[in-house]
C-alpha cells in the first residue's frame, strides 16, 4: 500500500499551479524597436529595422502602419533606402498563445528628398554661459515643418507650423548646449520625407573648462639621438679648424623665463633644421675641394723644355768698293 501524499506536498503543488496561472494572466513585456544605424536614412543608404523581445518568443510580427503591411519576422533589412520605405513601424511577438503589447512606434524617415536649408545663430555662434541664443533654420521652399538635431541627442527638436523658417531659442546657455547642430525642413503633408541636412553649425559656449593635452617637456628619443649626433658633427668641424662660420655662444635661459613647451619644441626643431642645412653646405664645399685637389693630382705633368742657346748667325760682310775706278782688288785692268 503506497503512502498518501503529505499536506506539504499539496501545498507546494498548489503554489506552483498558482504561479503558472498568474504568469499566464500577467501581460508580456513589450518589445523594443530600433533602426540601425539611425532612423534618419539618406536616400540610397542601407538601414536595418530590428525588433527585440525575450529569448522565449515564438513568433515576431513587424508592422508598417502607413500602408497596413506586416512581416512575420523580427528583422527587416533595407539595402537601399527609398521613399516608399519611409513611415511608422511597430512590432510585437507571440509567446505560446498570447501576443505581447506592441512596441513604441518607430518613425523611419528618408532624408535628402529636398534641398538642404540653412542654419545660423543669432547673435553669434560663440555664447557666454547664462546668455540667450537663437538657432534659425531657413528654407527656400514653403515648408511648414522644421526639425533641429544636435549630435549625440536621441531625438529632434521640432517647431509648430511656420513657413520658410523656424527659430529654435536656447535660453540661459550652459556648457551642455555646446556642440554641432543640423536642421531639416519638410511638409506636414509628407511627414516622413525630409530635406537633406543643413551644413553643420558649431555652437561654442565660451568660458567653460576645456581639457587640454600638454606637450611633453622632454623631446622624443629620436630628437635626442639626432641632437647628440649633431653635437658630435659640430665638434668634428670645429676640431678641424673650419672657418666657414664663427661659432655662436648659446646662453641657457633660467627656468623662470623658459618658453612654453610647444614653442620650445618648435624652436628646437627649427634650429635643428638650420644646423642640418649649414652642415650639408659645409660638407658639399669640403667634398668639392677634395675632388678638385684629387683631380689636379691625377693630371700628367707637362715636361718643361729648357731653351737651347744657339749661336747667332754671322753678320753679313760688307764689301769695300775699290778705289780707282771702283773695281775690286785682284783684278787687273785690260791692256
Automatic annotation (TrEMBL):
Residues 117-183 form the Ig-like domain. SMART domains: IG, IGc2. GO terms for molecular function: collagen binding; collagen receptor activity; protein tyrosine kinase binding. Keywords: Disulfide bond, Immunoglobulin domain, Membrane, Signal, Transmembrane, Transmembrane helix. Residues 239-263, 311-335 are annotated as: Disordered. The chain crosses the membrane at residues 273-294. GO terms for cellular component: cell surface; membrane raft; tetraspanin-enriched microdomain. InterPro entries: Ig-like_dom, Ig-like_dom_sf, Ig-like_fold, Ig-like_Receptors_ImmuneReg, Ig_sub, Ig_sub2. Residues 1-23 form the signal peptide. SUPFAM superfamilies: Immunoglobulin (SSF48726). GO terms for biological process: collagen-activated tyrosine kinase receptor signaling pathway; immune response-regulating signaling pathway; platelet aggregation. Residues 240-250 have a biased composition (Polar residues). Pfam families: Ig_2. PANTHER family: MHC CLASS I NK CELL RECEPTOR, PLATELET GLYCOPROTEIN VI. This is Glycoprotein VI platelet. It comes from Catagonus wagneri (Chacoan peccary). The lineage of its organism: Eukaryota, Metazoa, Chordata, Craniata, Vertebrata.
Amino acid at each position: 500500500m503506497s503512502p498518501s501524499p503529505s499536506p506539504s506536498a499539496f501545498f507546494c503543488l498548489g503554489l506552483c499551479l498558482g504561479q503558472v496561472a498568474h504568469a499566464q494572466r500577467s501581460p508580456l513585456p513589450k518589445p523594443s524597436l530600433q533602426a540601425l544605424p539611425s532612423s534618419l536614412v539618406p536616400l540610397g543608404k542601407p538601414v536595418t529595422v530590428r525588433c527585440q523581445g525575450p529569448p522565449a518568443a515564438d513568433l515576431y510580427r513587424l508592422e508598417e502602419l502607413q500602408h497596413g503591411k506586416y512581416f512575420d519576422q523580427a528583422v527587416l533589412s533595407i539595402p537601399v533606402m527609398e521613399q516608399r520605405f519611409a513611415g511608422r513601424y511597430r512590432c510585437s511577438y507571440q509567446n505560446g498563445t498570447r501576443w505581447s503589447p506592441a512596441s513604441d512606434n518607430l518613425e523611419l524617415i528618408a532624408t535628402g528628398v529636398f534641398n538642404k536649408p540653412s542654419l545660423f545663430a543669432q547673435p553669434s555662434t560663440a555664447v557666454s554661459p547664462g546668455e540667450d541664443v537663437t538657432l534659425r533654420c531657413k528654407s527656400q521652399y514653403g515648408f511648414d515643418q522644421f526639425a533641429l538635431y544636435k549630435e549625440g541627442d536621441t531625438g529632434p527638436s521640432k517647431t509648430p507650423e511656420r513657413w520658410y523658417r523656424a527659430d529654435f531659442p536656447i535660453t540661459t546657455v550652459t556648457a551642455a548646449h555646446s556642440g554641432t547642430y543640423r536642421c531639416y525642413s519638410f511638409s506636414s503633408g509628407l511627414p516622413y520625407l525630409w530635406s537633406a541636412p543643413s551644413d553643420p553649425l558649431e555652437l561654442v559656449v565660451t568660458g567653460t573648462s576645456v581639457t587640454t593635452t600638454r606637450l611633453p617637456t622632454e623631446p622624443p628619443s629620436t630628437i635626442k639621438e639626432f641632437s647628440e649626433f649633431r653635437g658630435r658633427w659640430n665638434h668634428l668641424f670645429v676640431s678641424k679648424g673650419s672657418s666657414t662660420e664663427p661659432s655662436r655662444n648659446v646662453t641657457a635661459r633660467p627656468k623662470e623665463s623658459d618658453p612654453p613647451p610647444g614653442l620650445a619644441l618648435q624652436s628646437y626643431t627649427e634650429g635643428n633644421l638650420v644646423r642640418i642645412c649649414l652642415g650639408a653646405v659645409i660638407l658639399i664645399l669640403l667634398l668639392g675641394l677634395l675632388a678638385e685637389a684629387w683631380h689636379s693630382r691625377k693630371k700628367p705633368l707637362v715636361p718643361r723644355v729648357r731653351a737651347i742657346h744657339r749661336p747667332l748667325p754671322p753678320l753679313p760682310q760688307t764689301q769695300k768698293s775699290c778705289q780707282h775706278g771702283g773695281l775690286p782688288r785682284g783684278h787687273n785692268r785690260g791692256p
